[in-house]
User: What shape does this take?
Amino acid sequence: MNDIREVEAVVIGAGQAGLSSAYHLRRTGFEPGRDFVVLDHSPGPGGAWQFRWPSLTYGKVHGMHALPGMELTEADPARPSSEVITEYFDRYERAFDLRVRRPVDVRAVREGTGGRLLVETSDGDWSARALINATGTWDRPFWPRYPGQETFRGRQLHTAQYPGPEAFAGLRVVVVGGGASGTQHLLEIAPLAAETTWVTRRPPVWREGPFDEEAGRAAVALVEERVRQGLPPRSVVSVTGLPLNDAIRQGLADGVLDRQPMFDRITPDGVAWADGRQVSADVILWATGFRPAVEHLAPLRLRERGGGIRVEGTRAVADPRVHLVGYGPSASTVGANRAGRAAVRDIRRLLEEEPVAA
Ligand SMILES: Cc1cc2nc3c(=O)[nH]c(=O)nc-3n(C[C@H](O)[C@H](O)[C@H](O)COP(=O)(O)OP(=O)(O)OC[C@H]3O[C@@H](n4cnc5c(N)ncnc54)[C@H](O)[C@@H]3O)c2cc1C
Assistant: This one.
């Protein structure tokens, strides 16, 4: 028999966005375990950070904001961010007694009875009056399709599987993608690889000088406008450009970051352009980003024609019980913090206004 457990709110995901939301739910008087639950399908604390490659040290992440209510102090910049942040999230969950349930995979969220949402999971069902979806993007790596892709005899992998630079020693590597991950992969791999080639769809946009708050706000506003229109969100980095730091300058000077336009097809031995040029490769590394992991929300039919979920603040326009935190404009550590607080404020108002169904 499947007993449905009832809570006021379910939080899906225990990354920055889910933990920030859980913290604010607690602060507002919701009791973990009784009034809300946090469900996460990863094996341990850390959200997506637990899966990031070892050479992504804490010193290399650009602007990790601490979770609300507890600073991340004295972290060694030389240690992998996967370790530093996982330990910090673990401490955080304990300090605020957030009682994250894991590994629990949320398979579907659908309309329940009495105006409630039914959350179906690998560990039974939950019924909730409100939902905070904080599932990030790591679980949905985006692989573009190119003609001939299936004929390639070498290895293809995505940033989500990047094992660190040693795996590419002595190999000819094509890196696809003009974001922060692509450039970081190239700078790490180039000294060990036999040859690297960098291809991007659009020429990279380098950002000179410091990234001040005003520029940050303008970038977030652009992504916000997209989700308000129901378009799929773009990453905040895609609108801010890439910072010209010392490592990037060096990569440009050395020719490691000599960007080529996107190839037109993949051959058994490499990649080829329409003008006849070819590059041989042992590996194609797709640093082509991620998409929001929201398939489990499909039964609620939140998606617009444009392919995205229309969101006002954090609230899904099509269903005010559903909040998306860490989605679109709040897909950064600082954005997720703010969005968690805003979602909880809104949910509290909703629950106070709506009479509890008998
Ligand atoms: C390589 C890389 C580096 C980055 N560096 C920075 C940086 O330096 N600074 C910054 O601000 N941002 C950075 N970002 C963006 C950053 O990761 C996020 O802003 C933030 O950490 C995301 O937090 P989140 O809680 O939204 O998602 P996540 O950390 O991905 O957490 C989502 C959680 O939801 C769980 N989940 C997903 N689907 C389900 C399901 N169906 N059922 C149950 N659980 C589920 C996952 O297991 C995961 O634990 C980086 C991103 C990448 C890819």
In short: The two ends are 22 Å apart (CA to CA).
